[in-house]
Amino acid sequence: MTNLSDSNLSDFCLKLPKIEAHAHINGSLSPSTMRALVARKVDVNPELAAFEIPDSLNCIDDFFSLFKFIYQLTDDEASVTFATQKVIEEFAADGVRYLELRTTPRANADKGMTKHSYLQAVIQAIEQQQQANMKTRLIISIDRRNTLEEAQETVDLALHFQQCSNVVVGVDLCGDVMKGSFLALKPAFERARQQGGFKLTLHFNEVAENIPEAPELLSIRPDRLGHATLLDDYSRTTVYQQAIPVEICMTSNVFSKTVATYEDHHVKQLLEEDHPFILCTDDKGVFGSDLSNEYVLAAKTFGLDRHQLFEASFKSIDYVFADQETKDQLKADWLAWKKDNQDLFVA
Ligand code: IMP
Ligand code: ZN
User: What start-end ranges are recorded for coiled-coil regions in this protein (predicted)?
Assistant: First the structure.
């Protein structure tokens, strides 16, 4: 049962203006969006109705089958647009004021969807769904299992859409942590930065098997790192010396079992060292935790008070893939919110 201070804290974290910088579109579909997509598709694919959409996950195996199911729901452009719009609406309703979504372009020959038309559907949804109170930008993901040719094709798409839209701001390395090699894909990331001026973020050291390739990932001087769960001596020194901001996804890490408990989460060290980090969700639909809940968890686990939560959110502005003018505007908005909501800082 939630007590009064719990609900006050949840209310504060919901109202707090927040930055979301690590959210995979397909992992961010809420159960209600999944149900709406099933309803749109059930006539042509009745099997979809049989899948039990969980309101929360009970075990690790759930999320692999859930991703497989989600990819059946977002297998054509109209569904991709619908899903992206819903994800944007939900982040805005959760108090996010600046959102960087990310997604891996996916083709589906059966429905005539190409990687190009997939991205076009996402970008159109973002452009149509710009909220009065929230800017949305896109990071394009390159899957670790890609060949260099596929990765370069993704960079070509990023460069193409840069010609007609200001939505795409960065490129990400994601996917199964046990597969692929960054070394093989590195030229694509270098070209994304050189030709497009794109910022780079890499899923980094999620499991022990990733540690040998860490120097290679760091050699590209990433602008941010996803997770950075395990810091061996070399990684720790480099990440700290270069003050590389870390995208922190507590619930995702605990559910994926890359971190044993919330109390053991490595964000504790970052807090102690005053190292840059951004609290994020990763896959809010799959792991059942939205961004305001991630702030609640950080507060409860590490005893952060409301001023510290505001500071964490405020500092995150410096680490987003936006120009200085946007960052200055966001900072002004945050400070105005704090001034208008002084009463919320009294627990
Ligand atoms: P999509 O790129 O929009 O299709 O988002 C889902 C994809 O994000 C998954 O298939 C994974 O490849 C990737 N993903 C989600 N969470 C993680 C993570 O924690 N580590 C690495 N990749 C992830
Ligand atoms: Zn991720």
Answer: none
Residues 6+ positions from 17 with CB-CB distance below 8 Å: 95, 97, 313, 333, 334, 337
Is pTM beyond 0.70? Reply is yes
- Cα separation, 308 vs 306, in Å, equals 5
Instruction: Give residue-wise pLDDT tens across range 215-225.
Output: 999 999 999 99
d(CA 31, CA 67): 12
**What's the rounded Cα separation, in Å, for the pair 276 and 203?**
16
Confidence of residue 170 (pLDDT cuts 50, 70, 90): very high
Cα–Cα distance for residue pair 288/147, rounded to 1 Å: 32
Cα 120 to the center of its chain, rounded Å: 19
Q: Is 77 in the pocket of ligand 1 (CB under 6 A)?
A: no
Locate the domains of the chain by residue range.
6-338
pLDDT at 60 over 70: no
Strands 277-279 and 135-143: unpaired
Under CATH, which number does the domain 6-338 receive? 3.20.20.140
Residues in the chain: 347
Residues 6 or more apart whose Cβ sits within 8 Å of residue 187: 148, 152
For the stretch 260-308, pLDDT in tens is 999 999 999 999 999 999 999 999 999 999 999 999 999 999 999 999 9
C-beta separation of 62 from 122 below 8 A: no
Vertex 2: Cα angle to 15 and 134 (nearest 5): 20
Residue 4 has pLDDT above 90, yes or no: no
Average pLDDT over residues 112-140: 95
Find the 341 Cα to ligand 1 centroid distance in Å.
36
Contact 239, 228 (CB under 8 A): yes
Q: Is the pLDDT of residue 17 over 50?
A: yes
Give yes or no for residue 17 CB within 6 A of ligand 1.
Answer: no
Active site residue 206: yes
| Closest Cα to atom 14 of ligand 1 | 175
Query: What are the distances in angstroms from CA 98 to CA 77, 88, 137?
Result: 25, 10, 8
Mean pLDDT value across the chain: 95
Tell me, rounded to whole angstroms, the distance of Cα 111 from its chain centroid: 27
DSSP conformational letter for 228: -
